[in-house]
Amino acid sequence: MVNPVRNISKPLNPTGIGLECNPASASGPGSAPASGSESPPARREGLLPRREGLLPRREGLWPGGSSGIISNGVKLKYILIALILMAIGVGVSLTLFQTEEKRVKKQFHLLSEGVSKEPGENIFTMDQKIKKIGSLFDETCEINIPAHSVLGRLTRDEITGYAARSRFHFAEIHLKFYDFNIAFMQEVGAGVHLTARLTGKTTTGENVEEAHELDCLLKRIEKRWLFDRIEVVEVLKK
User: Fold this and answer.
1) Torsion angle, CA of 43/46/49/51, rounded to 10 degrees?
2) What count of Cα atoms within 13 Å lies in the side-chain half-sphere of residue 10?
């Protein structure tokens, strides 16, 4: 009894790819290939289904892929965020620097007010100004004024006493500071190089006009900038 040959083309070819005909095998062993036909392929295409998806295509690694565009967009987003944060940091640092710079300059302005004297100043006003001068200095401060033989580290009381005696010899005096060059040094303080201009008139009627270059050091103590060193480095005009 002859068993019928099963048609296995459909089960073995679920993708629907048609089977190629091999004339040589159909003619039997030893048969010559038909005229004009090509040599049989090394393997029969279509007998084994194509396995799609064994190595999934990774979106974003292929040029032009949609995920690649998204990935580039995400990178650009993070770069922009980093730049914005850097700009904010620079802005905050600059704002803090400007704020501290103003506070340092204010101490010189207050010192100018304390030293200055108007004609007819009364005792009460003089006392308030001397106290203001003392509040601007640390407990001790190095004062170097060679022209007036003031050299060394003085206490706050010694500084206010010296200021009171000096003001007593003037009928009028004005002290101004300008050309500020401020450098903040970590754990040291604020170094300030500037010019001081002193003008006025003594009690004997003699006019006074002096300009000095100063090197000063202020330290931040309990949220206040206090003088720790004042040194006259050059007399510009006398």
Assistant:
1) 70
2) 2
79, 15, 83: which is closest to 47 by C-alpha?
15
Q: Which two tokens stand for residue 163?
A: 């200021």
Q: Is the pLDDT of residue 64 over 90?
A: no
Q: Could you tell me the two tokens for 71?
A: 């990935």
Query: Which of the residue ranges 37-51, 77-91, 122-136 would you say has the lowest mean pLDDT?
Result: 37-51
With vertex at residue 169, the alpha carbon angle to CA 166 and CA 172, rounded to the nearest 5 degrees, is 100
The residue among 103, 159, 166 whose CA lies nearest residue 134 is 159
Does pTM top 0.85 for this prediction?
no
How far is C-alpha 178 from the geometric centre of its chain's CA atoms? 29
Q: CB of 213 within 8 A of CB of 236?
A: yes
Full set of structural domains in the chain with CATH: 87-237 (3.10.450.50)
Alpha helix ranges (H) inside 154-222: 156-168
